[in-house]
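Hi everyone, sorry if this is the wrong subforum. Our group has a chain we'd like a structural model of before ordering constructs, and none of us has done structure prediction before. Sequence below.
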Amino acid sequence: MQHHYIPHSPTASNNLINNLPVSSDIKKDLKNRLLDLGRRPGLDSTTNKVSLPLEELKKRSENKKLKYHLQNIAGNILNDHRVGFCMKHLGHTHTSVKIKQKKEGSYYSGLATCNSIWVCPVCASKISEQRRERIATLSKNFPSKMLATLTLQHNMGDSLEDLSKALKSAWRRMKMGKAWVELQRDLDLYGYITSFEITYGENGWHPHLHVLFLSENPGAYANIDEIEEKILSRYIKALEKEGHIAKEYACDVQEADENGANYPGKWGLEHEMTKSTIKEGKGIKPFQLLDLIGSGYTKYIGIFREYANVTKGMKQLTFSKTLREYEVEIEDPEEQETDDPVFVELTYQQFKIIVRKKLRAEVLRIADISTIQEFWYYLNSIGIRRNPDQHIPGDLIEIIDFDVGYTQMQPDKMSK
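Answer:
Right subforum, don't worry. Here is the predicted structure as tokens:
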């Protein structure tokens, strides 16, 4: 038995490998394993790193930081919701946490998620992007698109549950009977998508319903004012039967341009996650409530809890029967297996240190801009030690030459 050690560096190792007294099959296998340890496939071919421009990368990193920060706040105040566990524990089929990479940036794989579009900024971002892509594809089949927004009169002290039920019930009433059949015919309607949205302001809760109407007729929505009058008239009658009132401004109808599919993308709430748009009392979005709570406005804690309890289990986006084929269940964002390359694989114990120190976003930022050696140097600086089986370029590799040929890798003590 002979032992041979070579540095894990493609530029320094090829000649050494070629001169080893081992079989050609072992040499070939060793070269492949060296490449696999150092390679970051699917990324920039020259730098082997995430290939976004620096400013875009910085912007995405800041967004991730904000999302994880708001998720922590939501988890702290919602003890009976899954958001407190989201992206902090292993998924039920996983034994480790992987950081994978694509050109847009690094992300975690193998973690349990709450899959909540309502109270989790991290999941909402991923789910809304899936929906945006799906609806963008769908809308290309329809030359005419029209967006209607329905709301109702509300005052401070009105419960969100009562307002939400009244609004949704009025919409259901609108779709009943002969009058609805006639309205569909007048609109030359193929189908519609509805999205429920909630804000909070000086007059309390403000729920509203967005409806994206789709038609195969290019000129279906040319007379937008006349269409708005028909919808408003029917909506006011339906709302009155629910014990609520609506005025002229309770219904707004616009013809959507070729980018109409972007409206549902906004309904996923990700577009509202910028601190610059947060103004207390001016139509605050739910995730903006979380930011205000984190800034010391504790009066909003009970308000956000009310919102979370009312929306729990509620559908945000629905499709008409004619479009039902597009309404498939959103897959768990973190349980989907992808072919994206693995930058590093961490044990659950190592990842728990990251969670405890509230560094989930920062770790991804470092992964975006670092080599694997630099990344482990950073992890070491925050108290995470590399295990013997977590190899990186720079390790020494031990070749044990048996008659049948066998290879084993062992990290160099100096490279830990």
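For your construct planning: The mean pLDDT is 78. The chain has 13 helices and eleven strands.
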